[in-house]
Structures are given as structure tokens and as C-alpha cells.
Amino acid sequence: MEKFVIKGGRKLYGKIRISGSKNASLPILFSSILTGRLKLSNVPDLKDVTTTCYLLQKMGFEIEKNKDVVEIESGKVIKTEAPYELVKTMRASILCLGPLLAKYGKAKVSMPGGCAIGLRPVNLHLKALSKMGADIRIDHGYITAEVKGRLKGCEITFDFPTVGGTENVLMAAVLADGKTIIRNAAKEPEIVDLAKALKKAGAIIEGEGTDVIEITGISELEEIDYRVMPDRIEAGTFVAAVGLAGGEIELEEFPFEVLKAVIEKFEEAGLKIEKLDKNRAKVKKVGKLKGTDIITQPYPGFPTDMQAQFMATMCLAEGVSVIKETIFENRFMHVLELQRLGADISIDGNTVVIKGVDKLIGAKVTATDLRASASLVIAGLAAENTTEVYRIYHLDRGYERMEEKLQALGANIKREKSELPY
């Protein structure tokens, strides 16, 4: 296992490029099941991407990776099973269920794993696919699904806007018989990116980015050649890093349009974010930030995936900040670790109160999930002395060479072997 060793106190200066979106790449990679051929560029070099490609390879797809380009082609024999050994490490692996059913009429997928930040139930996926005609059962930790003939287009109303559920049904519906209407659909930009990719293959989709999506099924899709959108959460994380460490940086491939809620809150706190051109931002910290409240919400609200990083930034802000988490339960596990660095934070149910302190002091801390690990790293940049962040395998699932990008901005951070067995 590995850890990050960070010597804090250095301000950040320089220029880096934001990588392609992890949360857009994964469903588009799984959409290759539907098309048989896919060429995807701007793909980030991440553990979850590697896991997805390996899973598709095990199913019988041929994979070729060259820098940020992934090419996938269907083999002669396709296995419609996603085994536990792979699925246990990544919750997004459930996204192969809809495409396998739509293309091959059957699927056997292990119940998914990933970050330990709440239930994130898959029952909404299963209920929707059942309504489309799939016979689904759960045995010994596996979801087994079959359909006779094609899936049937129908009207599906989600209990709440589920991103994964919307993506799974969207992919299943493009090859279904008839029209599918998804109501209370998630509006996340990554869903729009998936729809754009599928449309390039001939899919008939309307309303992506709204809460009602209409899909008219067709019998066959063409191949996809597509470029993934930039990662809005990585972009927001580097904004937060400047909010903590200070300095002035330039971010290329900055997704202004899909990061409005995050930009507004950081600007409200006093951070300067300047639009240099269509996709280039300058982020500058001038003086101390002030305490600012957020409530996590589905897009276009403040994203839950930026909650931990914003919390870390508020630890050194003037005054009191209140953060309310409405998307996931159990997503405050980073609080105890931030407290080890000297943060003044209290938890009451799904709400956190942060009283800004004058300084953070380096300590050994442990990452509990992907975004929590990012919050600890950026807190370590601002902390006095040395901070060691353990279990950074969480971070490697969603950030492309984060330490190298921070080093390019002048941070004193290095990856080392961990003396701990986890």
C-alpha cells in the first residue's frame, strides 16, 4: 500500500490541465456493449477506468489503450457475466446490466462495491429494468436478469433523481422496442455526455439534461467516436486547493458551464475565479476566506462530490460555516480525520458546523473514500509541518496523478510506500 507525505505551507502557482471526466468515461465505456465498437478520447488514466476495461475484456471485448484514447471492439464470444472479483471494487460496474440486457438478453452481475458512503441502492435500477420486461432475481450476491426478445419501451418514474439508474435505463432503452420515457431523471452533465455519445451512434434521445428524457428504441447502433468532457469534480478540487493553500493558478479545460454552483460558493467565500477564455480559468486567493454555507443537491445544485473538499476549505475560513448533506447518508467520515489536523467541526445528523481556526497542524490521517481522500490531501497542503495520508488507493480511483499535478504547482507532496498493511 502507498501513502502521500505532504509538507504544508507552500502556496500554489502555475498551470495544469484538467483531465477527462471519470463519471462520464465509465458509462460511455460500458455503452460499447451496445455498439460493439467504441473509440473514446480524453479518457483519464484511473483505477476505475482500468477496472472497467478489464471487466469488458473478461466479457470478451478487445481493448486497446494509447495514452488518453481507449478503443473497444466486440469479440466473437461475449460472456454476459460481471464477476465479484472485479465488481466489488467499483460501484459503477452495475452500469453493464442495462446494456447487456438490451444487447444480449441476459446478464449476471455481482452486487456492486466501491466507496463506503451509504446504501446507494440498486433497487431503482432493477425496478426500472423489470418494468421494461426483464425477469430479475438476486441469488448469492448476484443479480441475474433475462428478457425474452427485446426490452419493451415504457414510462419510468424514479422515486428520486438517480444518476446510475438514469444511465442504466438510458442505455437499455436505446435498443428497446418502442419509446421509453424517464421521469424525475437525473440532470447531471455526465448523463448529457453519455446521451451525446449514444446519439453519435444513431440513438434517438430527447430531453437529456432535463428531468424528462425520451428515448425511441432502434434495432442497432453504429460505432461511437467521442471525446469525454472535462472532470468538473477534479476542477473543483483544485479550486478548493487554492482556497486552502493560497496562491494563483491557471486551469486549462475548465468546465465553467457545469460548475456554476461550485464557482458561486467559492466566490461567495472570497476566492477569485476569473474566466480567461472559454475553457481557461485563473484561481487566486486574496486574504482570508469567510465562512460560507452549502446544501448538497442533485445537479444543478452543489454536488455531493465536492462536499468534503469545500468542508476542508472552510476549516481555515473566518467565522462559521454550515454544510448540509442531502444526497448520501454516512458521508461525513472525513470529519474525524480533519479534526486530527486541528479542525473545529461538529456533526448533527446530516449537518456539519465548522468554526474556522487559525491554522491546521500536520498529522497522520486515513482516507475513507474517494472525495474524503482529496479533502485530506488539500488540507495537508495548508497544514503546518508534515501530513501523511493513508489508503490513497481511494484517491487513485478518481484523480489522475494528483500528486504530479500538485508538484507542478509547487506543492511538496510525494508518494511513498506505506508502513501499514492497508
TrEMBL record:
GO terms for molecular function: UDP-N-acetylglucosamine 1-carboxyvinyltransferase activity. The modification 2-(S-cysteinyl)pyruvic acid O-phosphothioketal is found at C115. It is found in: Cytoplasm. Pathway: Cell wall biogenesis; peptidoglycan biosynthesis. The keyword Chaperone does not apply. GO terms for biological process: cell division; cell wall organization; peptidoglycan biosynthetic process; regulation of cell shape; UDP-N-acetylgalactosamine biosynthetic process. Phosphoenolpyruvate binds at K22, N23. PANTHER family: UDP-N-ACETYLGLUCOSAMINE 1-CARBOXYVINYLTRANSFERASE. Belongs to the EPSP synthase family. MurA subfamily. Cell wall formation. Adds enolpyruvyl to UDP-N-acetylglucosamine. This is UDP-N-acetylglucosamine 1-carboxyvinyltransferase. It comes from Desulfurobacterium thermolithotrophum (strain DSM 11699 / BSA). The lineage of its organism: Bacteria, Pseudomonadati, Aquificota, Aquificia, Desulfurobacteriales.
